[in-house]
Amino acid sequence: MVLPIAIESSAKRLFPNLNPEQAIVELLLERAQKNLIKYQSGAREFEAKYSKDFETFRKKILSSKPDSAVEQDYFDWELAATGVADMQEEIKRLKALQKKS
Fold this sequence. Notes:
mainly alpha
């Protein structure tokens, strides 16, 4: 991977013990972990609001005619739940890359 000199210089300064590719993996891992926390927080808010987990809520919504506010919560909660799963998978993938380096 060829990086611009300025980026390579910053990577060496911020991550002195890593090569530039390892530094990028570290940065991506940090971002994925932050995103995971954001999605988990959103999911927990909905779990508290509705006093149930997403799958139970989903089944109830799909078998009823919710009002627009509850329907919007469903879509937002689904996004959070999907985001949690996606970020967990991404973190797993990045940690595997970390071990290869």
